[in-house]
Amino acid sequence: MKNIIKAKFVQEMCDTTANMYRLGWDERNGGNVSMIIEDKDVEKYLKNRKVIRTIPMGFDASALKGKCVIVTGTGKYFKNVKTDPETNLGIIRIAANGTDAELLWGFKDGGKFTSELPAHLMSHIARLKVDPKNRVIMHCHPINILSMTFVHDLDEKAFTKTLWRTITECMVVFPDGLGVLPWMLCGTNEIGEATAEKMKDFRMVVWAQHGIYGAGRDLDETFGLIETAEKGAEIYLKIKPFEIKQEITDENLKEIAEWFKVAYKDGWVD
Q1: Which of 12, 116, 221, 227 is catalytic?
Q2: Alpha-carbon distance 88 to 108, whole Å?
């Protein structure tokens, strides 16, 4: 049997979480990442693997039953994932009853998945209906996006257009915009349900005064979505105190969309 630590999906989780920590997106044990793993990839490393233990999830994820997910652990620090992935990550399989997770690998210290796993699974279910290739849900606390929620209107169109106007790449990378939620208590099914509802229309959902949820086909794409929005928010906060003498106009946004062949939401560009 191959060494699972060397598996591409484990190494990618290690590299991505290390980058997220390096950028200040995931302080202490803040943030969480989950990725659905293809059966063929799991089989290479965990063929006929016995279930280590069964962990209740507190949510009915029957729509995902049988699927395997690699996920960060509760209370775990992203800075430690790369040096000890078997303690800080786990591979779970959604049990036949839909409400339990079968641990196949990881969490070797007796730990378990992030407390926000239900929110992740709800978003996975929502995104798979939009794009069957969406496999990643990423939650983190980018400093500038988080700061922006204190000083900017939380209207989704307004929030998105402010970012689109900061740098050309924002319209190119996320023409579908961002969903925005007001402050809600994290770790609850309520915020998970609200996020999943937004995920029907957006690949990124901002949690005011908390952080952001991103979805994508792989870790690089999802990381890049958040990274681009965060750059836009940084530019916005740096120029906000000054008089704006020129900016990307609605006509410019239309030019960008036409040139890069991306579709923005109806009515969002005048």
Answers
A1: 116
A2: 8
- In this predicted structure, the answer to whether residue 149 has a pLDDT above a threshold of 60 is yes
Tokens of residue 98, six digits: 């839909």
pLDDT in tens, 164-221: 999 999 999 999 999 999 999 998 899 999 999 999 999 999 999 999 999 999 999 9
Distance CA 102, CA 50 (A): 9
Partners of 204 in the beta sheet?
214
| Residue 229 and residue 236 in contact, taking contact as beta carbons nearer than 8 Å | no
Q: Which domains does the chain have, with CATH numbers?
A: 1-115 (3.40.225.10), 116-270 (3.40.225.10)
- Whether 116 is catalytic: yes
pLDDT of residue 166: 97
Rounded mean pLDDT of the chain?
96
Mean pLDDT of 129-143: 97
Q: CA 92 to CA 125: how far, in whole Å? A: 16
Beta bridge partners of 70: 35, 91
Give the containing element (helix H, strand E) for 69. strand 68-72
The helix (H) or strand (E) run that includes residue 92 is strand 89-94
Q: Per residue in 121-130, pLDDT tens? A: 999 999 999 9
| Measured CA angle at 70 (ends 59, 44), to 5 deg | 130
Nearest to 14 by CA among 1, 5, 23: 5
Distance CA 175, CA 77 (A): 32
Starting at the edge strand found earlier in the chain, the sheet holding 211-216 runs 53-56, 100-106, 89-94, 68-72, 32-37, 136-140, 211-216, 204-207, 179-181
